[in-house]
């Protein structure tokens, strides 16, 4: 009995040199005219929203319930009361922002994201947009509710709310980068600490300063513009350093 197995060359003939050249030429022509398919940015954006942490949605819900309770259970007869309430609600809503923004590094997913065809900078910006859209929508509803409940200036509340929101994000990112925090638990501790510090500021904030904010819309606009500029600068630094090893890695 012959146990010798047949070789594959016994069944497949050797290709002609002309056939090989024609196949290579056809492939080259195809590659030269066909553009690679790109995933639509909107699809990526909704994918980032889909995979946001449940803790983010919980903090938003708690923030809305807090504002609703304060509007129903107390009388917001002054602008100062409205600003104090928003200064308590904003840190709670924004508590999960930075942990979500840098979760690729905190969860050791930086290398995997950088290996995809989509740039890690694009993923960061999409994640930033998803988190901010979700949180700013909640804060907009909260500011509108407080404004209607207490007949307060909606513009003043909104400008103050977004400015405080940016300041919370700036402080969290600065502390995480300064102390080179990598773990998710460490980032949560930083966010929680900043939240309580910001909330305590609502109690110790000088009365004259609050009144100045209420009466001077231009000052609120300047405060908002400066906070946006500083936060944008932080994101720009993160984008420049990402190719060398993730969002939080140093040069």
Give me the secondary-structure topology:
Elements lengths: L16 H17 L7 H10 L3 H20 L5 H15 L3 H5 L1 H4 L3 H5 L5 H31 L3 H25 L5 H21 L2 H9 L1 H25 L10
Helix pairs in contact: 2-8, 3-4, 3-8, 4-8, 4-9, 4-10, 8-9, 9-10, 9-12
Task: Tell me what the structure shows.
The protein has 251 residues and is mainly alpha-helical. Helices cover 75% and strands 0% of the residues. It has 12 helices and no strands. It has helices at residues 17-33, 41-50, 54-73, 79-93, 97-101, 103-106, 110-114, 120-150, 154-178, 184-204, 207-215, 217-241. The longest helix has 31 residues, at 120-150. It starts with 16 loop residues before the first helix and ends in a 10-residue tail after the last helix. Residues 244-251 have low confidence and may be disordered.
């Amino acid at each position: 009995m012959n146990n010798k197995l047949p070789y594959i060359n016994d069944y497949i003939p050797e290709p002609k040199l002309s056939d090989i050249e024609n196949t290579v030429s056809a492939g080259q022509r195809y590659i030269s005219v066909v553009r690679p398919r790109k995933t639509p940015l909107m699809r990526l954006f909704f994918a980032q929203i889909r995979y946001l942490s449940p803790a983010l949605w919980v903090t938003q819900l708690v923030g809305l319930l807090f504002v609703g309770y304060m509007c129903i259970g107390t009388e917001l007869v002054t602008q100062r009361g409205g600003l104090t309430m928003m200064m308590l609600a904003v840190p709670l809503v924004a508590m999960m922002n930075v942990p979500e923004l840098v979760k690729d590094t905190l969860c050791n997913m930086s290398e995997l994201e950088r290996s995809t065809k989509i740039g890690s900078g694009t993923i960061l910006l999409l994640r930033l947009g998803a988190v901010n859209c979700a949180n700013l929508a909640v804060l907009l509803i909260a500011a509108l509710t407080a404004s209607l409940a207490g007949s307060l200036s909606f513009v003043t509340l909104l400008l103050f709310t977004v400015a405080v929101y940016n300041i919370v994000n700036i402080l969290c990112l600065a502390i995480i980068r300064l102390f080179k925090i990598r773990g998710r638990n460490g980032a949560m501790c930083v966010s929680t600490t900043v939240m309580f510090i910001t909330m305590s500021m609502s109690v110790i904030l000088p009365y004259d300063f609050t009144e100045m904010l209420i009466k001077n819309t231009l000052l609120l606009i300047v405060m908002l513009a400066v906070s946006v500029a500083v936060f944008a600068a932080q994101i720009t630094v993160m984008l420049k350093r990402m190719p060398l090893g993730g969002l939080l890695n140093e040069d």
